[in-house]
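User: two proteins, same treatment. go.

Assistant:
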Amino acid sequence: TCSIGISTYPNDGSDLKTLLKASDIALYSAKDYGKNHYIFYNKDLLLKAEYRFQVEQFLRDAINNNELSLVYQPQFDFLTGKLIGVEALSRWHHPHLGQVSPFEFISIAERIGMIKPLTESVLKKACTQTVSWIKAGKPHLIVSVNVSPSHFLDEDFIPLIKRVLEETGIAPQNLKLEVTETIDQTQEQNISAFKKLKEIGVLI
């Protein structure tokens, strides 16, 4: 199940440094396909690698500068037709890249270690907005926020949730955390996090 990047002499380089760089670029491309793949280097891979590095830097700056925005998808009770909640969805529009898909930038954020500050920013924005809607006459409104499964293995996650609740003033029962079904719910760390969130009163 290894991933292999391959470069050849002299087509991809005439010295060891250049050949290693080319094979490294090919290796990253092979990893993108999952395990058990091999890729031969070509110039298109270099362009993709440069683009990926640029996007990673743009995203890092966007998260640090709080430049991502949120949109809210309303959720209605099917029987009564009443608005019962909203789902907060991250959006990133970059002046050069245009609108970047959440599927793309969230996976990038996880890969470059920026998912924690991104999640914290989304939680604070979503909870602050929900509190304002509650004060405007929607007391039972619940905001749903998607969180990465990796957070449940992070010892700082529960303190983060408590801090967001305190700073924004939202009641625990008005916040719902959504996690993908792929998470291994039988893992001890996950069960512990679920129990602590239940004790706080946050919905999952």
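Protein 2:
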Amino acid sequence: RLQRTMTALVASASLAEVTAAVFQDGQPPLGASAARLSLAGQEQPELLVTLKAAGVPGRALAEGTVRPAPHWLSREAMQTPAAVYVPTPADMAARFPEAHQALHGYGHQAWAALPLHSGGRRLGLLTLAFARPYPLDSGPGEIVLTALGSAIADALSRAIHHDSDRDLVESVQRSLLAGVLPERPGVRLGAHYMPAETRYGVGGD
């Protein structure tokens, strides 16, 4: 499953494809019981836009939700290049007592927040919760988490660039298209756009 995720991430070109790759079959990655993939705001990095969440309770976890980074795991992860890992509920209670109280009763046994960076740019965050102990602090676990985070960050960077280019192209196309055509008795008018550059669909008549 991890191999399928990595392969899909390499092939992804849009944000929708990135989220589909991370949440294979709609399930959280790495065997987590809950996960959220968020983008950081460009002007306000403390704001996170939820691209996709799975297994996480609450109305605030709907796709497209814009929210401040929580004062615990996510906020700490957004301030460091390294993953923040909480291996047990006891560690959660000691490090983030307010979060421990808020998450009590969900049955999670371990948590991880993985900052997603590309070219020195903070792109977002992947948060994971596990229903059983998960040795992410071991050598293999850390390698897997780091590799997944790097692949997601690269895919997000490409997707953001791709979507920005697409928006620009569509804006140029709209500026070239005819507006509302006049109505004339006995005459039916139509307009057709022919791009000069077929690859990007810009310019032309």
